[in-house]
Amino acid sequence: MVHGRLAVPLLLLGLAAMSRAEAPQAAAARIDALIAQMTLEEKLGQLTQQWGGLSQDINPGARQQALADLLGMARAGVIGSYLGATGAEHTNTLQRAAVEESRLKIPLLFGNDIIHGYRTVFPIPLAEAATWNPTLIEQACRVAAVEGRAAGTHWTFAPMIDVCRDPRWGRVAETAGEDHFLGAQFAAARVRGFQGDNLASPNAMLACGKHFVAYGAAEGGRDYNTVDVSPQTLHEVHLSTFRAAVDAGVGSIMSAFNEINGIPATAHPHMLQTMLRGQMGFNGLVVSDWGSINEMIAHGYAADSGQAALQAIRAGVDMDMCSGAYRSQLAERVTRGELDVKVVDAAVRRILEAKQRLGLFDNPYIDPALEKRVMLTAEHRALARDVARRSIVLLKNENGLLPLKKQPGKIALIGPLADAAKDMLGTWSLYGKPEEVVTLLAGLRNTLGPNAKLGVSKGSEVQAALAGGIDDAVKLARESDIVILAVGESEDMSGEGHSRANIDIPQPQQELIEAVCATGKPVVLVLFNGRPMALQWAADHVPAMLVAWQGGVEAGNAIADVIFGDFNPSGRLPATFPRVTGQVPIHYNHRNTGRPAREGDRYTSKYIDLPTTPLYPFGFGLSYTSFRYAEATVSPTEATADGKFSLSVVVTNTGTRAGEELVQAYYRDPVASMTRPVRQLCGFERVSLAPGESKRVVIEIPAQRLGFYDWDAKFLVEPGVIQFFLGPHSAEGLQVDAQIK
Ligand code: GLC
User: Fold this and answer.
1) Which of 121, 182, 291, 529 could form an SS bridge with 432, CB 3.0 to 4.6 Å?
2) Looking at the predicted structure, is the pLDDT value of residue 613 above 80?
3) Among candidates 156, 217, 563, 155, which has minimal Cα distance to 392?
4) Is the shortest distance between the CB of 289 and ligand 1 below 6 Å?
């Protein structure tokens, strides 16, 4: 028996050996042996995550004290993870205190929100979804992992895989939109991108599927609001992206702030145990959201922090993000016999396993030279530009106004987002630097060169009028040949805690747009947005409209590439754009009701003051060329529940430019034992076509993809007719029918 003091270093040698892919059972045994060495305080420390960043704007003395406190906890072995700590120097300093000075020398786990890029900031996730290209976004997440890990982050709190059907919700910006099938493709791709194929390598980060679950279904689109959702919708829509993330090997899950039908997600045994760990087979670590354990008191579910901590750890939350409840409340409950220490040990084990998979016992430190080498390289910028270009959606292009010639005469660039670097980065871009952003103004100049005839006028602020702004803008417009409007939302009008009750373009900008359009000059409207927006007036009056989202560090170059035709836009909407806010929530895969809307018949499901159709449907997007669909087929016309259907359609480029078309496959189950959506996306395929070229595009659909959940939330694939639709978006397509036997 080796003495206690000596046992620990030998154990760590063993743990380090684990990183070199030793047999899993040996790895497990060593973790168990380490747990056996731990005091209860050290165990609860491992379950605790708190802020580890050092604010730049506190005085040096306060900063020194803050650092001393962080180091003290690490040395005492009473902290398992910090969030907010980045940079090789700072994280290595904290790590040395844990690994070289604490009793058990267990490495710290550094977590951060690297959502759409670290220093190379990519477009917001909603924009990335508009590429409908999971493989491309996997590459973007790979770059984020290379940069993030090099800066000391082992664990990113991403991908955010909530599904949102209500664009008033500020966090729609972080989602892949309104559709769970598209969302599941991106969830899996992002997990693969962040984690790579070896978490112990210096360019991988542990991913975190969040927020478990149904956070995007907050009533009224108000952040943190109540979620009351049917079991069918919970299973079919909100859990499906998590199934995809778990199947892709996501290493952690974050519990959501919201309640689900009366039980807070942070203490929901059915969701966390039965569903996540049981049915889905997830065996990674679960972390609460920031302070969500103690928030169960406000939920009216816990009387105090002690009860909340007990509920959360029993339900399966392993790590307490920033509420401090585990470390302060659970020791007493263990000693009082209220909480079995085995529950604590199981949580500790999952956290140590994550650290081991990341290779932290073997290589706990970051190479500062690597950090300097990998940030914002030319390759990373080029990828960011390509993602941004592919995310841009062309909504309208009357008389082929776009693309502009490169010498289009004098251009008036007007609007508060014309040169708005910070707003291009979008929400959750904590590590991007505005000074490294290419704004629309810069992008136009890069394309047109130093002699460009380009005038700029802000016209208004984003949410306020600008004295004389409209007059100045109108004057410039009158002196110019064409106007490019840069309007929409600032980066802080979406994201966490930024829900909007009205999703119009802010009124001061609307007045600017109307005044500029009244000059009669041709206008291209470039929308910068973190959500779908209500654009009825612009759609009726502006000849050309592009959705540019918040396009990241290369936004301006990407938009210029599209405006001047160096890139033919291929983005498609990942979420429905309503006519007015009053239509919200609105989504394409709605059910038919017993009285589907019928014009002229008021006693059908519609409004008396507005059409029920959206302004632009899910999947919509134009190109500088045009496409025709013909000869749709399905084979076989009959298949069993374990079979598959092969859909095909001939797509022809009927325009004069090469272009990419995104062929979308939807289905409808017209008669079933549960009412089914009028359309549901079931596949998509990109095809590139030269002018005049035709190709037959084939999309395989496993019959299992056509199943649904019954009243008891049991999954089934029911015999009967299936209608398939092959087309350019959710509101148009050639129909072919088949049968599930
Ligand atoms: C926030 C967010 C979550 C984020 C966490 C850490 O409140 O809900 O998405 O990862 O706290 O910043």
Assistant:
1) 121
2) yes
3) 563
4) yes
